[in-house]
TrEMBL record:
Residues 60-78, 90-113 have a biased composition (Basic and acidic residues). Belongs to the WD repeat DDB2/WDR76 family. It comes from Phellinidium pouzarii. GO terms for molecular function: DNA binding. One of its GO terms (cellular component) is nucleus. PROSITE patterns: WD_REPEATS_2, WD_REPEATS_REGION. SUPFAM superfamilies: WD40 repeat-like. Residues 37-131 are annotated as: Disordered. WD repeats lie at residues 423-452. The keyword DNA-binding applies. This is DNA damage-binding protein CMR1. DNA-binding protein that binds to both single- and double-stranded DNA. Binds preferentially to UV-damaged DNA. May be involved in DNA-metabolic processes. Keywords: DNA damage, DNA-binding, Repeat, WD repeat.
Length: 600
C-alpha cells in the first residue's frame, strides 16, 4: 500500500471530524427523513400530473462522422518514425501547396482589379448586353431594329444658311404662326424607364419611319428606345394586363459600352456619325470615346486619355475628325483616318472647357464655352499651323497655354482667337445652330444669350462686332448645388447624388429653332394650396420645355402635370421633323413628345 501524503492524511482527518460532529447533532437521521419524505411527495406528484401537450421531438439527423483532418507532415512523420528524408519531402510538398494557393489568390485579385478598369478592347453586341441581363430574344429584337435603320444612309442635315430669314414681315409672321400651330399639337406620346440611372445625354436618330432615341446615363449605360414600337403586353401576378396609359411605351434595350458601371463612366455626350448615322459616338468620364457601329454591332475605342475628364466633343460634317474638350482647359483634335496616337492638344483656358461646337457651314470655326466666364470662337486652321517645335512630349502632345497666348497675335486681322464675349458667370454650354449663323449659350447667371454671327463670319478674320442681340431669362440655378446638364463635374471622377435633380440644356432642332427644358413656377391664383401659418399661396412648380424662335420669342410650352412629375434633365429633338422632341429625367424615365395622331 502506497504511503499517504501529508495532504491526504489531513483530508481524512477532516472527514472523520465532520462525521463525528454530525452524529452529535443527529443531522444524519434528519437528512435520511427528508430524503424519504421527498421521495414520497415526488411519487404522489407523479400520479397527479395532468396531461401535457405533446412536445415536438427534434428529428435526429444522420451525422456522418468524417475522419479528423490530420497534418500530412505529422502523419507521415509518425509512419516514417521520424525519417529525415521523409520530413524534407513533406516540407517541400507543403511549400509547393502554399505557393499554388498564393498564386490562385493573386490571380483572383487581379481579375477583380481588371474588372473594375475601363475596357479598351473591341466589344460585340453580346458583350455590351451582358451586364443588362438581356435575353437572346431581346438581343435579336435589338439587332433587327438596328438593321432596319441601317438600310440607307441618314446624313446629318445642315440647314440652308438663309433659312428662317425673311425680307417681308408678313411672311415671317405666317411662318411663326405655322410653327406655333404645329408645336401646339405635341402631346406625351410615349413614356418608359429607358436607363437605370440619371440621364446625362441624348441623341435622336434621323430615321423618319420610327422614333429611335439614344440616352446615356450616370453609370455608363446606353439606353436605346424605339419609342413608338408596339409594346409587349405583360401580365401581372393576377393575370391582368395593364392599361395602355399605365404600361411602358415602345421598346427599349440597355447596353454597357463604358465600364465599370459606376459614376466614373457617366456618358457625357452622344453624337451620331454625320455622314450616314450608322455609328454612335459616346464620351464618358472614364476618359474614353467609343464608336458603336449599327451595321457591324461592334464597339471600339477611338480615343483615350489619362487623368483628364472629357466634357464634350463634336464632329464636322465630313465625319472624319473629332474635336474634344476636357476639364483641364484643353481642346484635342483626333483624325479618325489615322491612328489615335497622332492626336494633338491645345491648352486654351486655365479652367474647364465644358462644351465644343463646330460650325456646320464653316467647320474651321470652333465655339467653346468655359468656366473662365467666356465664350470664344477659335480658328482651327490657325491652331493646326502652330509650329510643332513648341509642343510638349506628353500624350497627346500639347501646346501649353503660355505658348498659345504668345502665338495668338497675328497681322492682317487674323489670329487663333476669332471672337470672345465675357459672361457674368461660368458659361456651361454653347452651340451653333444647323444654319451655322446663330449661337445660343447657357450661363450660371440665369440667362440664355443669342448671337447672329453670320454677318461677321462672312467678313473673314477677327469678329469686330460680336455681342448677343437677345438675352432670355432662364432658370439655370434654382439652388446653390445646381449642376448643368451635359458638361458637368469640375471633379473628373465623382458626382454628388445630393445635388438636386434640376438640370437645364438647350438643343437646336430645326432651322435655328431651339428647345430648352426647365422647372418654372406657375402663376399664383385661386385654387392654389395655401400655407397654414401665413395663409399665402404656395408656389406650384411645373416641369416645362420651351421652343424658342431664332429671335428669342417663345413658340410653345410643353407640360403635362398628370404624366410628368419630374424635371426633364435632358432634351433632344429630331434633326428634320420639328414635331418630335424627347426628354429624360434624373431617374432614367424618358418621354416622347409627338402629335396625338402618331401616338394613336
Amino acid at each position: 500500500m502506497p504511503k499517504l501524503t501529508e495532504y491526504e492524511l489531513q483530508r481524512q482527518a477532516n472527514i472523520a471530524r465532520n462525521h463525528a460532529l454530525l452524529a452529535e447533532l443527529n443531522f444524519e437521521e434528519a437528512a435520511a427523513g427528508l430524503v424519504s419524505r421527498k421521495s414520497e411527495a415526488e411519487a404522489i406528484k407523479s400520479k397527479a400530473k395532468p396531461i401535457q401537450p405533446a412536445k415536438r421531438v427534434k428529428r435526429e439527423r444522420n451525422v456522418i462522422v468524417e475522419p479528423r483532418r490530420q497534418s500530412l507532415r505529422l502523419r507521415d512523420a509518425a509512419e516514417s518514425n521520424g525519417s529525415p528524408s521523409k520530413k524534407r519531402k513533406i516540407d517541400r510538398d507543403e511549400e509547393k501547396q502554399r505557393q499554388i494557393e498564393l498564386e490562385e489568390r493573386l490571380e483572383a485579385e487581379e481579375r477583380a482589379r481588371q474588372a473594375r478598369k475601363p475596357r479598351h478592347q473591341d466589344l460585340d453586341l453580346k458583350s455590351l448586353s451582358e451586364t443588362a441581363d438581356m435575353s437572346p430574344e431581346e438581343l435579336s429584337a435589338l439587332t433587327m431594329t438596328l438593321q432596319t435603320v441601317a438600310q440607307k444612309p441618314q446624313p446629318r442635315r445642315t440647314a440652308e444658311y438663309d433659312a428662317f430669314i425673311f425680307d417681308d414681315e408678313v411672311k415671317e409672321e405666317q411662318e411663326v404662326t405655322r410653327l406655333k400651330e404645329s408645336l401646339k399639337k405635341l402631346k406625351v406620346a410615349s413614356r418608359a424607364k429607358v436607363t437605370q440611372d440619371r440621364v446625362y445625354s441624348a441623341a435622336y436618330h434621323p430615321e423618319k419611319s420610327k422614333d429611335l432615341i439614344f440616352f446615356g446615363d450616370k453609370h455608363g449605360q446606353l439606353g436605346i428606345w424605339d419609342a413608338q414600337a408596339p409594346a409587349d403586353e405583360i401580365e401581372d401576378e393576377d393575370g391582368d394586363v395593364a392599361a395602355p396609359d399605365e404600361r411602358e411605351g415602345g421598346k427599349y434595350w440597355r447596353l454597357q459600352p463604358h465600364w465599370p458601371a459606376t459614376s466614373k463612366s457617366s456618358i457625357s455626350a452622344i453624337k451620331l456619325d454625320p455622314i450616314n448615322s450608322h455609328s454612335l459616338f459616346t464620351s464618358a468620364y472614364d476618359c474614353t470615346i467609343r464608336s458603336t457601329s449599327i451595321t457591324t454591332n461592334i464597339s471600339r475605342e477611338v480615343f483615350a486619355i489619362e487623368d483628364r475628364l472629357i466634357s464634350s466633343f463634336d464632329l464636322p460634317p465630313t465625319g472624319q475628325e473629332l474635336w474634344i474638350s476636357d476639364a483641364k482647359g484643353g481642346l484635342t483634335h483626333v483624325d479618325l483616318r489615322q491612328d489615335k496616337s497622332t492626336a494633338c492638344r491645345w491648352e486654351l483656358s486655365d479652367q474647364k472647357i465644358g462644351c465644343v461646337s463646330i460650325n456646320p457651314s464653316n467647320p474651321d470655326m470652333l465655339l467653346l464655352a468655359s468656366n473662365d466666364r467666356s465664350l470664344k470662337i477659335w480658328d482651327a486652321r490657325m491652331l493646326q499651323e502652330m509650329p510643332a517645335s513648341t509642343v510638349t512630349e506628353d500624350f497627346p502632345p500639347t501646346f501649353e497655354l503660355e505658348v498659345v497666348t504668345k502665338y495668338e497675335p497675328l497681322p492682317k486681322g487674323k489670329g487663333l482667337l476669332v471672337a470672345e464675349w465675357p459672361h457674368n458667370k461660368s458659361v456651361s454650354a454653347a452651340y451653333w445652330d444647323p444654319r451655322g449663323r446663330s449661337i445660343v449659350s447657357t450661363c450660371y447667371d440665369d440667362k440664355l444669350r443669342l448671337w447672329d454671327a453670320g454677318s461677321e463670319m462672312h467678313k473673314g478674320g477677327i469678329f469686330r462686332a460680336f455681342k448677343p442681340f437677345c438675352n432670355i431669362q432662364h432658370n439655370c440655378q434654382t439652388v446653390s448645388d445646381f449642376e448643368l446638364l451635359s458638361h458637368i463635374l469640375d471633379s473628373p471622377f465623382e458626382f454628388s447624388d445630393s445635388a438636386l435633380d434640376i438640370f437645364r440644356d438647350t438643343i437646336f432642332c430645326f432651322d435655328g429653332v431651339f428647345l430648352s427644358s426647365l422647372m418654372g413656377a406657375a402663376e399664383r391664383g385661386d385654387g392654389l394650396p395655401s400655407s397654414r401659418r401665413s395663409g399665402r399661396p404656395i408656389p406650384t412648380y411645373i416641369r416645362i420645355s420651351r421652343f424658342f424662335h431664332p429671335q428669342g420669342d417663345v413658340l410653345a410650352r410643353l407640360s403635362d402635370s398628370k404624366r410628368i412629375s419630374a424635371v426633364q434633365a435632358v432634351t433632344c429633338s429630331h434633326p428634320s421633323i420639328v414635331e418630335r422632341a424627347a426628354s429624360g429625367n434624373a431617374s432614367g424615365r424618358c418621354v416622347l413628345w409627338a402629335p396625338a395622331s402618331t401616338s394613336d
